[in-house]
Amino acid sequence: MGDDSKGRFQAIGTERLELVPLRPEHADEMAEVLADPALHTFIGGTPLSPRDLRTRYERLAAGSPDPAQRWLNWVVRLRAEHRLTGTVQATITGDTAEIAWVVGTPWQGRGIASEAARGLVGWLGTQAVRTVVAHIHPEHHASAAVAASAGLTSTGELHDGEARWRRHL
After folding, report:
1. Mean pLDDT by 10 residues, the chain (169 residues)
2. Would the pTM of this model clear 0.90, i.e. be above it?
3. At what angle do helices 141-149 and 112-124 cross, to 10 degrees?
4. Where are the domains of the chain?
5. Angstrom distance (rounded) from CA 60 to CA 28
6. Which residues pair with 78 in a beta bridge?
7. Which residues 6+ apart lie within 8 Å of 70 measured at CB?
8. Partner of 159 at 20 to 30 A CA spacing, among 19, 91, 139, 143?
């Protein structure tokens, strides 16, 4: 589980989840997962149509246009339900990874985001990453709990109105 010689990345397995590299073909199912406008309370925007989400996923799957930066995106599959439940992502620049996650409303409160974030941070520890960072809205307590479960701690710094969380690997 990691990068192959061409820089692609593979699935990450956890106890209940499989983090699968994001592909445009995931857009239809993910549009349903991400359809609740409440998911955008802290991150802004509105739910995308399957077509718009496919276009976004095509851009993400193509990778960053900046060779100094890697975009890694996974969909989160809950094995027991045989379905996608959210996404995790890492943007790697040098030895720092900025991570983020989202889990669809029907699957929240079940520890899925925490398990996915821990799996992601664990995998990042096998890469050339030394620092993991997340930016979380100060009032998004559930997301702060996810960050804490993945070993990140609040730095007390604000970046564009969001609290900066960090973990040194």
Report:
1. 50 97 97 94 90 97 94 97 97 97 96 98 96 96 97 96 97
2. yes
3. 40
4. 12-22+68-168
5. 16
6. 17, 83
7. 7, 63, 64, 90, 91, 92, 93
8. 19
| CATH value of 12-22+68-168 in 3.40.50.2300, 2.60.120.10, 3.40.50.300, 3.40.630.30 | 3.40.630.30
The beta strands (E) that lie in the chain are given as 12-13, 17-21, 69-78, 83-93, 96-103, 131-136, 153-159, 162-168
Residue 164 CB contacts under 8 Å (≥ 6 apart), including other chains: 133, 134, 135, 154, 155, 157, 158
Q: Which two tokens stand for residue 81?
A: 């339900």
Phi and psi at 148, nearest 5°, equal -60, -40
Tokens of 131: 């620092």
